[in-house]
Here is the input.
Amino acid sequence: MDYIERVFSDFQEIHGDRLFADDPAIVCGYAMFRGRPVVVIGQQKGRDTKQKLHRNFGMPKPEGYRKALRVMRLAAKFRRPIFTLLDTPGAYPGVHAEERGQAEAIARNLHAMAGLPVPFIAVCIGEGGSGGALALGVGNRVLMFENAVYSVISPESCAAIVWRDSGEAEKAAEALKLTSDDLLRFGLIDEIITEPAEGAHADYDAAAKALGDSLHRHLKSLSGLTAEQLIEDRYRKFRLMGSFFEDGEQPRDPST
Here is the structure.
């Protein structure tokens, strides 16, 4: 919400998935971005205990992802670019969330995002946790704040599984390669957004300006593409992830 307040104007929040309920862990709505109508979708953790409980610590439930999907489809219908702000430890793993189709909701979002005919820019602003973040993250451009992390699992959970000791989280974090520098080197993100010297949390205005400038630059580069080109661009981007080859070999064309 700090970024929405500073980067966008005329934000109009949309609530509910029209199936079950509204999920406060995901914030969606229409907004204006430097004179252009856009859609913004983000994950909200909250600050104090009351807010964190209300937002479920930023862990969305199925209705949150279905709300996001509803808004993405509206963006496609009205040809509005989509910005998503990722900040979650992961999708909520509770029994009731699983009963309501948590995995199905994430999978449906992944499928739908692959075919959206509008510019789509995703930004990891803090913590990108597994499918809970990826369910909003299949963008033409994936950006990441300098001090953010993005990984398939948290270091603590990874350490508990691999070494059966969550105290080995530091070793797990090194193995996971979850920093912005690591992900840029592997080609999993497109740009690192520089934070203020003491971190984004120390200067919201400076962090928001850096975010806005980066979004503007990437949106401008995508705006000249047709709907078909945007879909193909997104397809190729994610098909090439994890494509490894030996020295001297050429990477395989994902279209073949």
